[in-house]
## 1
Amino acid sequence: MSGTLLVFTTDFGLVDSYAGVLKGVALGINPGLRLVDLTHQIAPQDVAQGAFVLGVSYRYFPADAIHVAVVDPGVGTVRRPVLLRTPHGFFVAPDNGLLSRVLSPYLSSAPGGAGMAELPPTVRAFHLTNPDYWLHPVSNTFHGRDIFTPAAAYLSLGVAPESLGQPVGELVWLPAPQPRWADVGVSGEIVYCDGYGNLVSNISATLLEGREVGEIRIRGRVIGRLNRTFLDADGGQGELAALVGSHGYLEIAVANGNAAAMLSAGVGERVSVTFVAQPGQ
């Protein structure tokens, strides 16, 4: 299908040729493809970060887009290369938990821990076993080039998912850390740090709706209210701010600065929100 959108998410970075080679392979199979880089700056081998970024981003692309996601520390081992078909896009990736956040909205209940997630009827997955749709010879260390991207490019030409491999009923599940309720608020942790040093937590906007925030605490610092914008911090520029960011989660930022550097904080850092008690509570 000429004009199909192919979206890349990898940890390859931009120094080496790996990201560019993926595009060359895709265009060699289907010159009519449109190519978009979501990011190639996922931290090396950080499957959880890749799952988060892909999970909060994919719905901003057309529902027929094909995503190639490669954060693959187990490349060349027994982990499966898979295709996941959802109502909002196709995803070609290693079966190592990278697709957990894409899969999550379709599950009636997520597994309690790491393991396997049984697929609901609304999605289908295929183990990419048909070598007719690979690039040969297949490297043991670059399946993004030799298996994932070719499969996605052939899919864009109209090759049926069933022709690419065998159906599977479950995928590897990588659980995301969940916030916890306390008597007077909710506590969570930082799950992502963006290029500006903004610290994104796992406390979603929905957990804050309808409640008056009293204070936010992180790494011994107290932020006295929930801000509306980056520049809405108490004290203005250079001060800590807590706000609901574009990802839909509470994040800690510094107006025209870097919160991660100021706080010496990163992924896994605890953050807590205290609510103002309402009359009668």
## 2
Amino acid sequence: MKKLVCSKKDSGLPIISVGNIVVGGSGKSPFVIELAKMQKDAAVLLRGYKRASRGVLVVSEMGEILCDEKESGDEAMMIAKVLPQASVIVSENRDEGIKRAKELGAKVIFLDDAFHKCYEKFDIVIDVKTPNRFCLPLGPYRLPRFFLRYANLVVKEGRDFTRNVTIQNPTAKMVLVTAIANPKRLLSFIPKDMPYYFFPDHHRFSKEEIDAIIQKERPTSLLVTAKDIVKLQKFGYPLSLLQLQLEIREEIIAKIDSYIKDYHAKKDANGSDAA
């Protein structure tokens, strides 16, 4: 089988891409967050799915939030709020986003879901188990599974990383309200008798929707994820946070650190800064 032909662009900075080859959630954002926490002068670049703005937008600069959630999109704002030592940028055009990250002084860039993009980068792909191995529209795969061979690192939950979930500010009667991909995965972390309301991924909640849930369930708080809380805080209801943190194997972290250091060392040795 022939290899993929891809003329890779060198951005002048080490790029770490975290993606998958299936539709839906796989833990990309928590994975990026954990890796970016360990780096100095990092920038996280996303497309800003379902945001109300266009073009290049700096969501945060070294922890300083520079826009609202509606402009940035829920995922970008979530990442910005938990990464005070990094900058977060949204841009449909990744070249323009990378250029802005360099202008902000980034030393490493984390790209969301850029496995299929032709940049010089370290590709991490999260492999998700699914019984249906067909590609869209017959199955969940965006790319055939053999594409995994082109990744620098293929990681699996349970083998390479684990999820640690805690509830912050728990109350006596909570109701789970969430708008994330594959929300059923949250059910294993909550009591079986807890009511829950699932909305489409990236859904923009209305006050009427939340009021209806409050009136029906009479909860002491709404249990939400970090991605939901940035959209629900404005309504003023008590919120409990279903906090997710990934624990990644040290060997994986070491490989990424090595790639970043080797990239910079190579650039220093050549005495050039690629555009």
